[in-house]
């Protein structure tokens, strides 16, 4: 466990305004203190903290841009998010960074947290919200029949053994037994039928619900519950408050602002790191273009699948090395299409759709010119995303349009292709959205994601303990910066 000395902690708690004294070097003769591999939120947060504490930092990023999985679709009207979409009201680190860089919040546009009405297409039928409890395609029983389809995954795991426990309880041995069973088996143990389990699986963000640890889904919902409680404590019943938001002008403005706050020439893009060699004096990072960089320490923020592509000398700690080979990230794809006319005015159904077909969700987005609904966003996650890996972008458009018009004829002839975005498909630096845990993996690897080498430490959302998503990335960057400061 990392021990943080009082001087370092006071400096960080002071908003990184106090500089820890560093050894003085003459001009260019001063060696780089830390190489940070990856310019996503975790790497950028680590770099900011380290640099503001007086260490010299070099950030190596394989892409041509910063932000990692946070990507605003600048080529789509309304600037929707292509990854890293929602910022919870209780994301303390993210909100603090927004305040620091004077970034404004705005309500989500479309999606489950926008507050817009939904139409549900289940079992081949359209069902409205008020009709769902009595619908003959509703597979639930008793009071559960009031649970709407898009709420199922959360509600099924809401009253789990983690409820009311600390945010790190998912790593405690007493809850390990829930890691040994899959999500479906847990729901069966509660008496739910197969149709309910299948409907719940639509929103599961893994390669298969059948291999997903029940403890992982419990942890996800516990996280959501904690943040809902924080939201209620802060906002009460304020009708104008929203539980999650986006950044005005795009969430990508946050990593861009963080990058701009670093010293000039700190970040080098198009530097894919393929080798990391460390010795008693420091670390050398080797890049695919043949260049190499030397520093006293290194911070690596790559997701597990991409750590497989990096030659470590010495090798990774044994448990982490196995985890890197076995862990996967949840898949999803977003297909953005223009809409020539408001299809919902033709059939009278709400514009937004949640379905049990091969397209999980279609939402109309209203940030077009003059606030018009000009874009529909198709979101596909889980195993339904897999076929898109074998399609071109044009085939993705055609597939989504065909399925959308099959279930909703009012959309026929009005869809035009704009963009396809995935954090896994077609992105050599992407591997998916976030790490999910298969049965047994939390016990095997949960305590080892933060293992390190003497001069190499690891961060990234997958290493976070207390938080998830964008806040988890920021948490991990903060944690690894403390580790380096304690060693430096």
What is the number of beta strands?
Answer: 23
Strand order of the largest sheet: 8-7-18-19-20-17-21
Q: Quote the beta fraction.
A: 15-25%
Can you count the helices? 14
Largest sheet features: 7 strands, mixed
Overall morphology? globular
Fraction of residues in helix? 25-40%
End-to-end separation in angstroms reads 16 Å
Mean pLDDT: 92
Rg, alpha carbons: 23 Å
The assigned structural class equals alpha/beta
**Which spans have pLDDT < 50 for at least 5 consecutive residues?**
1-29
Can you characterise this structure?
By secondary structure, the protein is an alpha/beta fold. It has helices at 6-13, 41-52, 92-100, 152-156, 183-189, 194-201, 214-235, 253-261, 304-307, 318-326, 344-347, 393-407, 441-445, 469-487, and strands at 34-37, 57-60, 71-72, 81-83, 87-88, 105-106, 118-122, 125-128, 244-247, 267-268, 273-278, 283-287, 292-295, 297-300, 311-313, 328-329, 332-339, 352-355, 361-365, 375-381, 415-421, 435-436, 456-458. A seven-stranded mixed beta sheet has the order 8-7-18-19-20-17-21, with helices on one face. A five-stranded parallel beta sheet has the order 10-2-1-14-23, with helices on one face. A four-stranded mixed beta sheet has the order 13-12-11-15, with no helix packed on it. A hairpin with a 4-residue loop joins strand 11 and strand 12. Helix 2 (41-52) packs parallel to helix 8 and helix 2 runs parallel beside helix 14. The longest helix is centred in the middle third of the chain and has 22 residues, at 214-235. The radius of gyration is 23 Å and the shape is globular.
